[in-house]
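Duplicate of earlier report; Cadherin domain-containing protein input re-posted below.
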Amino acid sequence: CIYSYFSRVISTLSVTRYSIPEEMERGSVVANLAADLGLEVGVLAHREVKLEMFQESNKYLDVNKKTGELYIVEQMDREYLCPSKTATTCFVKLDVIIESPLRIFNIELEIKDINDNAPHFRRDRVELDVSESATPGERFSLPNAVDPDGGINTVKMYKLSESEHFTIEIQTGSDGTKYVDMVLTKALDREENAVHHLILTAVDGGVPARSGTANIIVRVLDTNDNAPRFDHPVYSVNMTENSPIGTLVMKLNATDLDEGPNAEIKYSFTLYTSEKTQDVFALNPNTGEITVKGTIDYEDMKFYELHVEAKDKGQHPLLGDTMHLDIAESTPAGERFSLNNAVDPDIGTNSIKTYYLSESEHFNIEIQTGRDGSKFTDLILKKALDREEQSVHNLILTAVDGGVPSRTGTANIIVRVLDTNDNAPKFDRESYNIDIMENSPIGRLVVKLNATDLDVGSNSEIVYSFSLYTSEKTQETFNLNPNTGEITVKDMINYEDFRIYDMEVIATDKGTHFLSGHCKLTILVTDMNDNHPELSIKSFQSPIKEDIAVDTVIAVVSVSDKDSGENGKVDIHIADQLPFALRESSDNYYELVVSEPLDREKVPEYEITFTVTDRGSPPLSDNETMTLELLDVNDNVPQFPQSFYTIPVMENNAPGALLSSLTAFDPDLHENQYLVYFIIEKEIVNTSMSMLFSINPENGNLYALKTFDYEIEKEFLFHIETRDSGVPPLNSNVTVHIIIVDQNDNPPVIVSPWRAHGSVVEEKIPRSTDKGSLVSKVIAIDTDSVQNSRITYQFLQVTDATLFSLDQYNGEIRTMRMFSYRDARHQRLVVIAKDNGDPALSATVTIKLSTVETAVKAYSDMTEVPLEYDIFSDLNLYLVIGLGSVSFLLLITILVTCTLCPSTLEKVRVSFSSILCHHEHVVCCYPLFYSRRNGGRLCCC
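Output:
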């Protein structure tokens, strides 16, 4: 696999074709690849270029990056690259893969054949045994020549050296291969020429033509077609009577032009020789010597007539017995066969005079007369026999004497025609076309051939064999049973290796001089779905950025299947739920493109499984899984868990106290996930937020820089921003509401009745005051809030508890009854004003009431109380003056701090070891180690 790392793939998969002759020298330029593919040579030098050749590990080609030329690295032999003889063209497929950005070009390189191979025979010496009885037209298979070249450069024709007996016939197989048969044009005669030397020449069609030769040795096998011949047809020998027994009379000599058993001779007396003569003379069957066996008496017999026959030892001897005659069908017309002569005791004219033979188109008789007047008859073959037409001939021989009236006798002659191997086996059909499924199991029957032979016996027994015509590969793949003619599978049949097998089968009989017949078979291999489709990842881009554009190519794959037809058609797919799609770009090439926007935060990586399935039945499939990793891009804004934070802070807090941790989340990775926190600057009453609060830029911890007083500052509203470190950075902000929580740190202050510090309030009241009259009113104020400022009033001490009442909520002191004479003149009241805090704080006031007899208006009826009014007005004045002074001092402090902040901020050491930076209304708080690491200077944006 090729893994490429680039931002965007540009893929061009058009097919560019070139054609070159094989065996080009190293360094030879095939083409200017850069120009043909529209590439700039200058840019090409900086890009990685790879050549990938299909199913071939050797590197034959390369690209010169400086010139853009495609050149030869290693010589290419077409016969090696395309060994199949069925292919008329040789194409080598390769991919040119150029990186950064990726471009893939499909190249088809046609390797043209040159005539660099001469035809040659697998066997340069062929020996054939041909019977001399073979008839003209008989065919004999010869081995075909092999030429690795293709097209016109392969074997085009055959030539045979000059011969009056043989010629050749050329046939063309289904794959274009030339086959040659040798044909007998003239009958052979072993006795004339026992061996024929021929030369077979195979010539290809190249220019110039190349050739190869094979020597053919034809041995002519003998047929028993020559009868033994004596040196003389008639011999005359004079013998002295009473010659001793064993005396050599003569030595006969017969010769036979045949050879082997056909030439071995055995001598014997024929039936013409009388028993008396055979009693007197002996004949050695092997040597032909005739010797004296009995007494020779001139007075008894003055001459002896001996008939001797010489018979060879061939399978069908040319001479045979009488009455029951076995005659070979190959016996030539004119051959003579001795018959038993008839015996007639009469003498003279009453003896046998003539013989007659029943009508026959094949036989007649010839009568001879001996010296003693005896009649002898020979059966003459006048027409050649054919056992296949008639295997037995029944004849009647009639002997007639010369008496008046004449008398006759008959004998039956049964002629059995002996078979001669004169019929070659013949197949039921001359050619067969057979379909067979590839991967057929070993031993499966392909076809059962049947040949018949009209002869009988061993001449009709057939043996089957492959001819030389049949290639070694075919013979390795199929087995032929020599006895049954069954052709079975011998080895694995692979459609992808060989789709057609041509063979020739010879049926040969078992005759002494065998004959044979031929048939040709073409076995067509049917493809079965036995090859899994193959998937090749040409380029795979991983990792890729998550924001890669839709329709961008991220991978290029190729598919193939060695099967054919539907079995070789391949479909490719990926899981439907993936945000990718496959797009066919060219023949068997597919691009994997982004079909939907990607989001690393949802799915950080994908397991993409490419599944290829052919269309066979059942279909076969294969798959390959690749992991696609997504690179993060800064596409997510940091998010706070809340959009608004309310943070209560107790007043009187310690400076540097942690108020809260405002942590945002960013689902991006690495620098895109690293967040920095800032306070967005805001001024409150001329006070910068940076003087009040600080935030740790790394973790979002919010700190207070000063102690807050609820009575002065009750709340703060500002924004905190977080920003990631991506390029460009993304940011978000959140609103923070700081609420200062009141602490009961202020006791109530009694403002009425007013009195000097530590003094007792003295008041006068008429003794005649009515019940329920307002005597005095205690007013206390508390600068705290809510519960802490709620005041209740109680008597701490009272002279007479029955005389006065105190409203606990408004502080009014009223009379509960009229004064009596028993009541003391002076009443002392101690009132405590207590807030509702925890713990509660309080203040007291002592009121001394004196009763007078003079008429004084009651408190409730007075329109003005000059003394108390003046006192209360003076108190308000003092309060205003005090609060104004404090505010003025606070304002001066803030202005001085802001003026000195830029130059002295780096020197400020906060209690939690942080540094404050003020820049453009943004407050930053950085740890000291962060400041030092960046050279002691901080910049907040």
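The chain has a mean pLDDT of 83.

Merging into the original ticket.
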